[in-house]
Every structure is written in structure tokens, then in C-alpha cells.
């Protein structure tokens, strides 16, 4: 009959210790970042190559914006009359 009730001496071992709120917050942030990374690269065989292509594309766009702004020609279109 004593099988239904846990031994009082061992009850302290069954207590789950809650980590410090700061540690818990850091763990949750790490887990969220990991999930986001996994969903971003889901189905991609080589995520590093995708990241390199994305960065290169951003640099090309930045270069294009810089040259179009410094050109000052109003968008690069010429108007000819006659």
C-alpha cells in the first residue's frame, strides 16, 4: 500500500529548479535565433553560398544607388528635341 505515496525523503530530489530569469531569457533568445535560422535555410543545400550571393547582391545594389545619386542627371535619361 505504500507504493502509491512517494517517500518524503526523496521528494526534494524531484523538485525542478527554475533558472535565473536572465539565463532563461538568454536561452529563449538563442532557441528563437536557431529556429529562425533553420526556417530561413529550409531546403537549401548550401546556406553559406546563399548568404554570399545575398551579400554580393546587396553590394551591387548599393553600388548602383551610389552611382545613380552621384550622376545627378535625373535618373540617367536624356531628352532630345528635334
TrEMBL record:
Bias kind Gly residues: ranges: 70-82
Source organism phylogeny: Eukaryota, Metazoa, Chordata, Craniata, Vertebrata
Domain of life: Eukaryota
Organism: Oryzias latipes
Record-given protein name: Small VCP interacting protein
Keywords: Lipoprotein, Myristate, Palmitate
Annotated segments matching region Disordered: 29-82
UniProt key word Lipoprotein: yes
Database matches in Pfam families: SVIP (PF15811)
Compositionally biased residues, Basic and acidic residues: 29-40, 48-62
PANTHER family: SMALL VCP/P97-INTERACTING PROTEIN, SMALL VCP_P97-INTERACTING PROTEIN
